[in-house]
Amino acid sequence: RVDEWTDVDRKRVMNDIISAMFKKNFMEELFKPQDLYSKKALRTVYDRLAHTSIMRLNQASMDKLYDLMTMAFKYQVLLCPRPRDILLVTFNHLDAIKDFISDSPGILNQVDETFRQLIETYNCLSDGEFQLIRQTLLIFFQDMHIRVSIFLKDKVQNSNGRFVLPISGPVPWGTEVPGLIRIFNHKGVEVKRAEFTSAGNYVTPQREGSFELYGDRVLKLGTNMYSVTRPVETHMSGSSKNLASQAKENIAPNPLAKEELNFLARLLGGLDIQKPAGGETGFRLNLFTTDEEEEHAAQTRPEELSYKVINIEATQEPGRRAELSRILGELEVAEPRPGSAEKGEDLLALMDGL
Amino acid sequence: SQAAWCELPSRVLLVLTSQRGVQMYESDGSTMVFWHALHVPEHPAAHSVFARGIAAAGGRFVCVGTSSGAVLVFDIPPKGTNVTLNEVLEQHRDPITDIAAEQGQAPDGAGDLVTADDSGTLCLWSTGEEFTLLGKIPGSGCTCSSVRLWNGIVAAGYGNGQIRLWEAGSGRIRAQVSAHARWIYALDLAPLTGKLLSGAEDSFVHVWQLSRDPDTDGIEIRHCHAECVTDTQVCGARFCDPAGDTFAVTGYDLSEIICY
């Protein structure tokens, strides 16, 4: 029960999860150049991270948490004024995380180390490269329109699930307020100025956000949405058009499944799974108001929006991991089961059974 | 990934670009005419490999840009599948963003092809059996996301929302417009009238009128019309006819094409 949690418990869970996320070998894997994860793979990693402490979540609460995270991140990426602002969003995330573990110097060090690596790897990228990253992320989030209470209330999301794109406010750093036309003659001398008007109401920005380890990011995207207690409801989209396109995505076999499983095995193999010690039973987090509501949500979740999570009991034991690799290796020459879609699906089915 | 119709005097091809390379199809989509694979390094490099920027040029070629900055020039036979890689242009050092061929009448010495890259650098070419570089306009660090060429005027859209007009012959800037509040994704030109269409992430689509006075050699741009596609980041904008009387718009997360 959440109401039986003490501050010590909360602190423990926070420290455990953050410590797991920023562990050296986990981060090392993430920083390797690689393709964007599939939705299945990302959800699996997310599940695993959420369970690296003594906290547990049922499927329904886990689904809801993931929905919230997905839509919040989609919002942040979509609304970035400049492509390189996705880096500022990341820095905002890290600043908030550092605040959560401000009294644990060991973990703080790990986070700062990641921060430095981000600065080293990304600060020098061009606008074009950032836009490519941003476009790749937006393709991942395309057609997701889950309505989030907090966004609906703040009027940043419409009732059809689409985000509000304001046409007023400061223009991005490096952009001019629209309206001016300057004409030059063949000698390069300005000979005429004209103005045009349109519906937007933009102003000049005051200053640029900081890309250093410490500094004012200026951008609000990526700061803690829940710094004041807010509701966590989400609503499934009612439009069948959107659900249809998502359904197709889940059914089509993933040809990169084997490579992805290798990646997952490496990544998750480094994550410690905490088992509650001795007589502890662990704590279960329920994102709904009652257990009954959670149960109901699990049963009524639209099939198209269910995340097919891979259950991998990847542990630290080298023996077990070798076993995993051997199984994957053996499967390369295995005959596909009659009636099954593709090798990829076979592997995934096997992993589910482990 | 991109798709573009390449209109040549003898045939129309549908050209597609992606991370794997370039594919060309007959205009009815029935057969694949040609496929060029991009060289992918053994181990995944920090920079992705892809093809981007497509244009038909010189009545005979299809030009495709790549992430290395190289522009591939394919020689297209009047019919059949005997497409060959004629030349590789290596003047850009940053990934190609867009390529455009002259849609009107080029003044002497102005060239008939323009290529643009991530750094904002523009190259002007004269097409032929061997392409000749006529001029290079250095970028100022802002990505030139899309480009058009008409009557020797280069119209370029930038990631910082600006539209700039350059004179192709001299490489001099002739106009600078603070057109959009966000990244410009699309530019299109109606060759019969000189209308220019711009679409950007700020949800706006603008229609402009380009003009070139042959006596004074004055180049002008004026604003005609603005449309706001509410809550949509415009990703594509194209005129539906050569006079520019109608245009179509697409956007992120939008499953419809909106026609104006």
Please sum up the structure shown.
Chain A is built from 13 helices and eight strands.
Shape of chain B: globular
The CATH class label of the domain at 91-259 in chain B is Mainly Beta
Q: What count of helical segments of chain B does DSSP give?
A: 0
Q: Order of strands in the sheet with the most strands of chain A?
A: 1-8
Task: Give a structural overview.
The complex is a heterodimer of chains A (354) and B (260). Chain A has 354 residues and is mainly alpha-helical. Chain A has a domain at 7-165 and 209-227 and 283-306. Chain A is built from 13 helices and 8 strands. Chain A has helices spanning 7-21, 24-31, 39-50, 59-79, 85-100, 105-122, 127-141, 149-153, 240-251, 257-269, 291-300, 318-331, 343-353; strands at 55-57, 147-148, 168-170, 180-184, 190-195, 201-203, 234-235, 283-285. In chain A, α3 runs parallel beside α10 and α4 runs antiparallel to α7 (127-141). Chain A is globular and about 75 Å long. Chain A starts with 6 loop residues before the first helix and ends with a helix. Residues 237-256, 312-317 and 327-354 of chain A have low confidence and may be disordered. Chain B has 260 residues and is mainly beta. Chain B has a domain at 91-259: 7 Propeller (Methylamine Dehydrogenase, Chain H). Helices cover 0% and strands 54% of the residues of chain B. Chain B has a 4-stranded antiparallel β-sheet with strand order 1-2-3-4, with no helix packed on it. A 4-stranded antiparallel β-sheet of chain B has the order 5-6-7-8, with no helix packed on it. Chain B has a 4-stranded antiparallel β-sheet with strand order 9-10-11-12, with no helix packed on it. Chains A and B meet through α7 and β4 of A and β16 and β20 of B. Chain A: InterPro entries: OSCP1. Chain A: It comes from Myiagra hebetior. Chain A: This is OSCP1 protein.
